[in-house]
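queue> pop job 88
queue> type: inverse folding (structure -> sequence)
queue> payload:
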């Protein structure tokens, strides 16, 4: 959740300018009207001070949050909440003040900084200090509830989220899958009243800043009007929906053959516990159940890692070496001594993978309870993508130390991981023999189970949250509306009856963590655009799903040029640096999976499947 971190540490950070700040506010207004020249100077002074102060305070916040997430107790929660409270107060103050300067004739960088200051909060507190304190407290509690979450079996064994996810990924026993699926969701029930209050308070904070609600604020962070952004998402989803439907149809048919009509009917939405993942968000873990008969590439990265004796540290080293092969500097020693790779047995930690930038310079780290699986090998690349991005933009002014938009931050490591091809695995000694082109459908299917299956999930989380923020979904409808959207976008359903005593959204990290989720949808489009463009730079002439940019310094340099820009330019400019185009476009996704789409439709047709739900 690096970018949540980045966001928080950037803009909910801030130093308590306290009395001096509010005085400054009034002056700014009056001089802006009467003395434009002085007002411009004042605006620049305001920005300079804001950046210095924010940068300093962000370090304090990062440390408090790092310690809390690595050691969840009442005390660390209180300390983290107390820093968050100060920072939110200051960043709200700065966002309010920034509004006073936006109509001045400033240089474009200053103008952009003001806009970022105004719109980058993800959890704005009301001006009332008591409410700010309450919000900081609730936020820390929600994070803690997720991090401490466990399900205890009847035999007394209590498992944490990564362990339960391991069962969801491996088990083929529907009864066991259902027990774990349901058990994990019980951790979220106590979150419901906290979440409801969090929404109320943050909406009030958004209104204080001049937004209609928190939905409008979240959607204002993409260099376009909020409603244009929503329309852009609909457009991108429309591009990929037919591909998703073909995949859904095929997978549902195969699951029906495996489990039978009672467990996995061949029509309607797919029961959510059968897809190899706690949230049915990526389906790669059921590849073996749905693999094509004649086109299976015949290797499994989890097994290859085990065979070569990879431990957690070696998995991270290997991922680092991909980045250095592109020309990036190796990670600093402190990364290795300060990161968390292995789940500690003696304390509660937030296991959900995240990448951190403690000092906005070189103290970069990851925190992740690594499982020795193919899935986590990919997640490690994802996390390092964040760290290499952070280091690339470290020379930018503080407010620009972020990605072009939040989807970019999520896309970089994934882009690199798209280059984990059979050829690459052979080059690094994990695979003996590269499967020939007759196995491409298997390779593409495996990839689609993760990347294509993710798209509607990546979209629906914030479709739900935005409606919650705007009031269109009321607290009495939280769970029902959640499942309606799950069904609408993903075509999955709850395997058992749920009601409003449940709070299933809370069982997904980013809801209690208050991390916006549309970024991952964007990243799943962007990474295919980046991959295609970088493969072109690398001069690869083969099919794009066989292309690996491993070792290619030109591709690395191109990527680095974009990363170094940070958030200093509107995202279309950054996108153009790598792709030559200024628009997000799912054509790259469709091109990548084109042979698979033909194959899926063929399979669905010859099995006479009725697609859709
Ligand atoms: O949360 C993450 C990363 C950290 S930013 C591990 N991801 C989303 C998720 O796990 O739900 C990566 C893919 C989607
Ligand atoms: Zn991420």
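queue> result:
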């Amino acid at each position: 959740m690096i970018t949540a971190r980045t966001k928080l540490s950037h803009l909910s950070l801030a130093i308590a300018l306290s009395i001096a700040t509010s005085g400054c506010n009034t002056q700014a207004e009056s001089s802006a009207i009467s003395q434009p020249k002085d007002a411009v100077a004042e605006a620049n002074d305001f920005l300079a001070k804001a950046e210095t102060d924010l940068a300093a305070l962000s370090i304090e916040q990062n440390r408090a949050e790092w310690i809390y997430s690595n050691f969840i107790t009442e005390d660390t929660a209180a300390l983290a909440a107390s820093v968050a409270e100060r920072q939110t107060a200051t960043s709200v103050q700065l966002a309010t003040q920034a509004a006073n300067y936006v109509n001045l004739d400033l240089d474009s960088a200053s103008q952009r900084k003001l806009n970022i200051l105004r719109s980058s909060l993800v959890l704005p507190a009301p001006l009332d200090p008591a409410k700010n304190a309450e919000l900081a407290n609730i936020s820390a509690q929600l994070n803690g509830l997720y991090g401490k979450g466990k399900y205890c079996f009847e035999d007394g064994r209590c498992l944490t989220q990564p362990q339960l996810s391991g069962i969801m990924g491996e088990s083929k026993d529907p009864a066991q899958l259902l027990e774990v699926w349901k058990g994990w969701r019980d951790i979220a029930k106590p979150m419901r009243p906290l979440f409801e209050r969090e929404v109320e308070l943050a909406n009030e904070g958004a209104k204080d800043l001049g937004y209609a609600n928190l939905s409008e604020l979240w959607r204002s962070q993409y260099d376009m009007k909020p409603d244009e952004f929503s329309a852009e998402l609909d457009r991108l989803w429309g591009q990929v929906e037919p591909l998703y439907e073909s995949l859904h149809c095929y997978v549902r048919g195969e699951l029906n053959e495996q489990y039978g009509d009672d467990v996995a009917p061949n029509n309607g939405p797919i029961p959510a516990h059968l897809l190899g993942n706690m949230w049915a968000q990526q389906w790669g873990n059921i590849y073996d159940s749905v693999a094509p008969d004649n086109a299976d590439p015949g290797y499994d990265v989890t097994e290859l890692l085990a065979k070569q004796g990879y431990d957690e540290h070696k998995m991270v080293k290997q991922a680092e070496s991909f980045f250095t092969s592109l020309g990036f500097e190796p990670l600093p020693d402190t990364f290795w001594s300060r990161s968390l790779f292995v789940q500690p047995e003696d304390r509660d930690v937030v296991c959900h993978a995240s990448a951190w930038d403690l000092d906005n310079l070189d103290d970069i780290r990851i925190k992740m309870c690594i499982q020795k699986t193919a899935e986590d090998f990919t997640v490690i690349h994802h996390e390092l993508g964040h760290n290499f991005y952070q280091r690339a933009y470290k020379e930018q002014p503080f407010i620009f130390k972020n990605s072009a938009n939040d989807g970019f931050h999520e896309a970089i490591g994934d882009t690199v991981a798209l280059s984990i091809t059979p050829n690459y695995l052979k080059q690094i000694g994990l695979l003996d023999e590269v499967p020939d082109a007759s196995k491409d459908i298997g390779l593409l299917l495996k990839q689609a189970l993760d990347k294509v299956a993710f798209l509607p999930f990546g979209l629906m989380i914030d479709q739900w949250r935005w409606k919650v923020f705007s009031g269109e979904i009321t607290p009495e409808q939280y769970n029902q509306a959640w499942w309606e959207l799950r069904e609408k976008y993903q075509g999955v359903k709850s395997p058992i009856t749920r009601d409003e005593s449940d709070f299933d959204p809370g069982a997904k990290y980013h809801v209690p963590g208050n991390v916006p989720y549309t970024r991952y949808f964007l990243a799943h489009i962007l990474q295919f655009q980046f991959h295609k463009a970088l493969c072109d730079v690398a001069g690869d002439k083969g099919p794009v799903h066989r292309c690996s940019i491993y070792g290619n310094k030109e591709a690395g340099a191109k990527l680095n040029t974009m990363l170094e820009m940070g958030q200093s330019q509107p995202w279309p400019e950054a996108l153009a640096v790598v792709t030559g185009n200024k628009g997000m476009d799912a054509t790259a996704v469709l091109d990548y999976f084109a042979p698979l789409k033909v194959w899926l439709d063929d399979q669905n047709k010859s099995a006479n499947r009725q697609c859709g739900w």
